[in-house]
Amino acid sequence: MRAITLVDLDDTLFQTLRKCPADVPHDRLTPLGFAADGAPLSYATPRQMQFIQWLAETSHMVPVTARSLDALRRAHIPFKAAVCAHGGVVLDENSEVDIIWAAIIAEKAARHATELAALSDAIAMEAQARSIAIRARVLMEGDLPLYTLAKHADADHAALFAVVDAAVPALPPGWTDHRNGNNVALMPPYLGKEHAVAHILPALRAQYPDAPVIGIGDSLTDAPFMSLCDYAMMPPRSQLAGAMFHAH
Questions:
Q1: What is the secondary structure of the chain as a DSSP string?
Q2: Residue 130 CB: number of other CB atoms within 10 A?
Q3: Which of 108, 124, 128, 233 is the residue whose CA sits 20 to 30 A from 227?
């Protein structure tokens, strides 16, 4: 183990077929993310597969993902410890739920359950009024309400964003509006990958005191957890890279 890598998954290590590079033949793609029924949903290119193998062989690799715990376990990548559900769940070195973090999240989640449901209802009502096929729901991890998620049935992100903007013209202070592809996640202030990473980093640094910590991600909401690391990496064709390069 030469480094600690805290790495996002979707659109960083793999992506949906629609987002795969056009110059890579389908028969060279490796399915790594699967639906509950076993159908493949996400694929890695040969270069991504080599990157995953390199990370697994040369670092202590910790996924840091928006995926639910169930969806994470359906991703065929090597890991033990992990951060999932936008930071709502932490797995320890034995792939068991971190009970200390779970208690912290449970106490905070209870305070925001009503707000999350109200946001979901507002989006659903706006979508119904416009006759647009959008599913809005409160994302649960076990019995904990973590955030509100909205998704368009036909991947029309422009229509999705228009409905969310009309239904939720402003979020309460400290909330996060995360948009990436065909999803909108409205997250309360306590939820975020960076909070969970801040929770696990002290023990990782104590265990591997001289190991550099590398944060790898693609989206704007990955930047805060990446900033806690010693180094940061991103795919050049990503939301985060686009915002950085466009700013210059």
A1: --EEEEE--BTTTBEEGGGS-TTS-GGG-EEEEE-TTS-EEEEE-HHHHHHHHHHHHHEEEEEB-SS-HHHHHTB-S--SSEEEGGGTEEE-TTS-B-HHHHHHHHHHHHHHHHHHHHHHHHHHHHHHHHT--EEEEEEEETTEEEEEEEEETT--HHHHHHHHHHH-SSPPTT-EEEEETTEEEEE-TT-SHHHHHHHHHHHHHHHSTTPPEEEE--SGGGHHHHTTSSEEE--SSSHHHHHHHHH-
A2: 13
A3: 108
User: From CA 127, how far away is CA 123, in angstroms rounded?
Assistant: 6
For the chain, percent of residues with pLDDT exceeding 90: 81
Locate 234 and state its tokens.
Answer: 């991103």
The Cα 135–Cα 117 span in angstroms is 13
Structure tokens at 39: 């159908």
Tokens of 30: 């490796």
Q: Which residues contact 30 (CB under 8 A, 6 or more apart)?
A: 43, 44, 46, 49
The tens digit of pLDDT for each residue in 6-61 reads: 999 999 999 999 899 999 999 999 999 999 999 999 999 999 999 999 999 999 99
> And the tokens for 105?
């999240």
Q: What is the pLDDT of residues 135-189, one digit of tens each?
A: 999 998 888 899 999 998 877 888 999 999 999 999 989 999 988 767 899 999 9
Query: Phi and psi at residue 67, in whole multiples of 5°?
Result: -60, 150
| CA atoms of 246 and 28, how far apart (whole Å) | 32
